[in-house]
UniProtKB/TrEMBL annotation, chain A:
Example of a GO cellular component annotation carried by this entry: voltage-gated potassium channel complex
Similarity-based family: Belongs to the recoverin family.
This protein's UniProt keywords: Calcium, Cell membrane, Ion channel, Ion transport, Membrane, Metal-binding, Potassium, Potassium channel, Potassium transport, Repeat, Transport, Voltage-gated channel
Classification lineage: Eukaryota, Metazoa, Chordata, Craniata, Vertebrata
Source organism: Oryctolagus cuniculus
Domain EF-hand: 96-131, 132-167, 180-215
Annotated SUPFAM superfamilies: EF-hand (SSF47473)
UniProt keyword Ribosomal protein present: no
Protein name, as recorded: Potassium voltage-gated channel interacting protein 1
Membrane-crossing residue ranges in chain numbering: none
Subcellular locations according to the entry: Cell membrane
Length: 226, 647
């Protein structure tokens, strides 16, 4: 993993220290700026193409296309949450996509570092587009499990559903009512929660989804997105 | 949507997997996916410089030239690249827009050229990125302003001549606005200027004390009282002239209301009104005080000079445009004056026999001190007063110095703008003259070619003049085209002078003489013309035997010399002069429909050169070839005959 940080702090320390007030002040300012610079100048380079190809289900050409687009948009090599939100806002201009983007970001950011590197990006895409049903469902479970504790409870589901409905925006037909998300969640839980204990585990989730034909069929929809 | 977003589309679609378990209805099927060709590298060749880019990059903006199928028009199958014959340096910026999504404006290129490139590639100028947007807009505005000034200068300047049917009003107004257009206007302009000066000087002189005739004690009177009649006469004369001018302007103004409201007319009114009021008001003691005050307004006559001086106008305009700065200056000065006056008053209050009797009295001291005049009629005597006095004078300089640079820079900008406009106007005439000369060069080329017998058949190739043979392929085709046009319209090309002279001759109905100098003319086209309407020509010839003439080559030469163009007469090969009869017969323009709008011009007999001898025309058709008929009766004649045949 090549993390190249451009820190030029080494060079400044070589100056002759004088006891000027002005000089100390200048140094202080300089260091402040450099700290900021360091954060922004960190450039990330992904692993080699062959490794990525081995790890994911994409071909070399597809990886190349993906990386070119990715690098163009994020020259520093990482995506942060802000960018995620902006991207989603552009795709869903009617409503507020920031909450869902936030959850999505957390799902992509498997290492919880606050930034999504190209490997994470490509790995997730590989699962979503070329993965098995099992993998896709597990990824979705991970998305719904906001606090990553292995269980989905009603509050988490509410948050997710509300976030999705937020993306719809105000102008919908039929008109969005206050308790529509709640009803939706109830329906979901009724279906998924086998033992009616108020939480959904991974196995319950997998089982219930595999029983549902609609979901199975829909999972094949996004096969050819690339 | 921004192009970059297209990159993220697969990701967004993939992330929709997260909705699946929640979906209560089956999701719609995905749109049919075309077999995605692998991303390929396109080569764009712009004037030899090769740019290579991914196809995807160009596809980001599908509503531009490069992003749409429009670029296929430029595809060169042999080399497999897209070729554009445009500026490669500019293309760099265009391509960078596709790559980065931001359009940057090149600093050293002309903004107009940049705009044209953008228009070609289908990019809207609004796409210019924020970093370069302000500069782009500024430069564009500057350009547009300059062009507008140019156009304005062209129109208003000493512009085109008024249409013949303009009324007295329009002519008068034009004479007033542009004194340079006619001598009378110029004379009027100077006369009024002179009288303004006289009036102002008289006003000044009549207050100088002249020594009265020797009297004991010698009394000093102002000259105005000593020679009241002389001054009154001078004043009357001036006012009469001014009144006349004002009334004439009022009459000639295209929009009287607007004229009445304009500044110059107000000045005019203010200049002449006191005189009339003085006449009307009876000379009794009560009113004469006011009457004297009115005389002060006579000094406003000096503002009439602003019509005569551009500098004054610029100054006035500057002050108007700097109104806010002046206002600020005034406001800050007032504030400072009040503050300091108050302080000084209270500082000097204790002193006995002080000049600072009240705050308004201290105003005078403050103003005099702040503007660093320092008359010395009011001086502080206490120490505190002196301290505050010095602070006052120091701050005065600052407060006054602040807005002055703004005003000065405004004035300089406007002044230079004006200079530029004037210079451009002056240069415009030279430019236009040169352009006209160049244009006439090309028309002359064709005429020259005609005279050099180029219109004959290629049979006698060797006899053709070298200059005829050495024309480029383009010229050949061009001349052929002009020739075709001539044949089509049964008119011929000629030069400006011939035409204008002919026009003059027609309006004069002048004396014409017949001179058949066919021998020196390439008869080809003219015989075409004549045989085009032989019957008519003949008929006319008989009827208007005396009123026709043809422009002999000699006269043509004379005209040439007049115009300063020296055209070497091409070799006159007899063969070229013999009209090929079959040529004329081939013409299929109906003589009946044909408006034989031929103008005859008088050939000054004295200048008829030797060449123009009355030759006995070979064919019958040729007899009338020398005769041109002017159908003076037809009203549609003159406008149509832009190009007249000339023999």
């Amino acid at each position: 993993m090549g993390a190249v940080g451009n820190s030029s702090s080494l060079q400044t320390k070589q100056r002759e220290p004088s006891k000027d007030i002005a000089w100390w002040y200048y140094q202080y300012q300089r260091d402040k700026i450099e700290d900021e610079l360091e954060m922004t100048m960190v450039c990330h380079r992904p692993e080699g193409l062959e490794q990525l190809e081995a790890q994911t289900n994409f071909t070399k050409r597809e990886l190349q296309v993906l990386y070119r687009g990715f690098k163009n948009e994020c020259p520093s090599g990482v995506v942060n949450e802000e960018t995620f939100k902006q991207i989603y806002a552009q795709f869903f201009p009617h409503g507020d996509a920031s909450t869902y983007a936030h959850y999505l970001f957390n799902a992509f950011d498997t290492t919880q570092t606050g930034s999504v590197k190209f490997e994470d990006f490509v790995t997730a895409l590989s699962i979503l587009l070329r993965g098995t049903v099992h993998e896709k469902l597990r990824w979705t479970f991970n998305l719904y499990d906001i606090n990553k504790d292995g269980y989905i409870n009603k509050e988490e589901m509410m948050d997710i559903v509300k976030a999705i409905y937020d993306m719809m925006g105000k102008y919908t037909y039929p008109v969005l009512k206050e308790d529509t998300p709640r009803q939706h969640v109830d329906v979901f839980f009724q279906k998924m929660d086998k033992n009616k204990d108020g939480i959904v585990t991974l196995d319950e989730f997998l089982e219930s989804c595999q029983e549902d034909d609609n979901i199975m069929r829909s999972l094949q929809l996004f096969q050819n997105v690339m | 949507m921004a192009a970059g977003v297209a990159t993220w589309l697969p990701f967004a679609r993939a992330a929709a997997v997260g909705w699946l378990p929640l979906a209560q209805q089956p999701l719609p099927p995905a749109p049919g996916v075309k077999a995605s060709r692998g991303d390929e590298v396109l080569v764009v060749n712009v004037s030899g410089r090769r740019f290579e880019t991914w196809k995807n990059t160009l596809d980001r903006y599908p509503d531009t030239l490069l992003g749409s199928s429009e670029k296929e028009f430029f595809y060169d199958a042999d080399s497999g690249e897209y070729f554009f014959d445009r500026d490669p340096d500019m293309f760099r910026h265009v391509l960078n827009f596709y790559r980065t999504g931001r359009l940057h404006c090149p600093r050293q290129e002309c903004i107009q050229a940049f705009d044209e490139e953008l228009a070609f590639y289908g990019l809207v100028p609004e796409l210019v990125g924020d970093c370069c947007l302000e500069e782009y807009r500024d430069r564009k505005k500057e350009n547009a302003q300059r062009l507008a000034e140019d156009e304005e200068a062209e129109q208003t300047g000493d512009g085109p001549a008024l249409p013949a049917g303009s009324s007295i009003r329009q002519r008068l107004w034009r004479a007033f606005e542009n004194p340079h257009t006619s001598t009378a206007a110029l004379v009027f302009y100077y006369v009024t200027g002179f009288f303004i000066a006289v009036s102002v000087i008289a006003n000044v002189v009549e207050t100088i004390p002249c020594r009265g005739p020797a009297r004991r004690p010698p009394r000093e009177q102002p000259c105005g009282d000593r020679f009241p009649l002389a001054f009154f006469c001078m004043d009357t004369a001036c006012v009469l002239i001014f009144t006349g001018e004002y009334l004439l302007r009022l009459f000639a103004a295209p929009s009287r209301c607007r004229f009445l409201r304009s500044v110059m007319s107000l000045i005019d009114v203010v200049a002449i009104l006191p005189y009339y009021i003085g006449l009307l008001v009876p000379k009794n003691e009560d009113v004469s005080g006011a009457f004297v005050t009115l005389r002060v307004f006579r000094v406003f006559r000096i503002f009439k000079f602003s019509r005569h001086s551009q500098g004054l106008r610029i100054l006035g305009y500057t002050l108007k445009s700097c109104a806010s700065e002046l206002g600020f200056l005034l406001f800050s000065l007032t504030m400072a004056i009040i503050i300091f006056a108050t302080v000084m008053f209270y500082a000097e209050k204790g002193t006995s026999k002080t000049n600072f009797t009240s705050i308004p009295a201290a105003f005078w001291y403050t103003i005099v001190t702040m503007t660093t005049l320092g008359y010395g009629d009011m001086v502080p005597s206490t120490i505190a007063g002196k301290i505050f006095g010095s602070i006052c004078s120091l701050s005065g300089v600052l407060v006054i110095a602040l807005p002055v640079p703004v005003i000065v820079s405004n004035f300089s900008r406007i002044y230079h703008q004006n200079q530029r406009a004037d210079k451009r106007r002056a240069q415009q005439k030279v430019r236009l003259a040169r352009i006209r000369l160049a244009k006439s060069g090309t028309t002359n080329a064709f005429l020259q070619y005609k005279q050099n017998g180029g219109l004959e058949d290629n049979g006698s190739g060797e006899e053709q003049a070298l200059c005829v043979r050495n024309r480029s392929a383009f010229e050949q085709q061009h001349h052929h085209l002009l020739h075709c046009l001539e044949k089509t319209t049964c008119h011929e090309f000629t030069d400006e002078l011939t035409f204008s002279e002919a026009l003059g001759a027609v309006s004069l109905g002048g004396r014409t003489s017949r001179s058949t100098s066919v021998s020196s003319q390439p008869v080809g086209p003219s015989s075409l013309l004549s045989s085009c309407c032989p019957r008519r020509a003949k008929r006319r010839a008989i009827r208007l035997a005396n009123s026709t003439a043809s422009v002999s080559r000699g006269s043509m030469q004379e005209l040439d010399t007049l115009a300063g163009l020296r055209r070497s007469p091409g070799p006159q090969s007899r063969s070229s002069l013999n009209a090929k009869p079959h040529d004329s017969l081939d013409l299929n323009c109906d003589s009946r429909d044909f408006v034989a709008a031929i103008i005859s011009i008088p050939t000054p007999p004295a200048n008829t050169p030797d060449e123009s001898q009355p030759s006995s025309p070979g064919g019958g058709g040729r007899a009338s070839s020398t005769l041109r008929n002017s159908r003076l009766g037809t009203p549609c004649l003159l406008p149509e005959t832009v190009k007249i045949s000339s023999l």
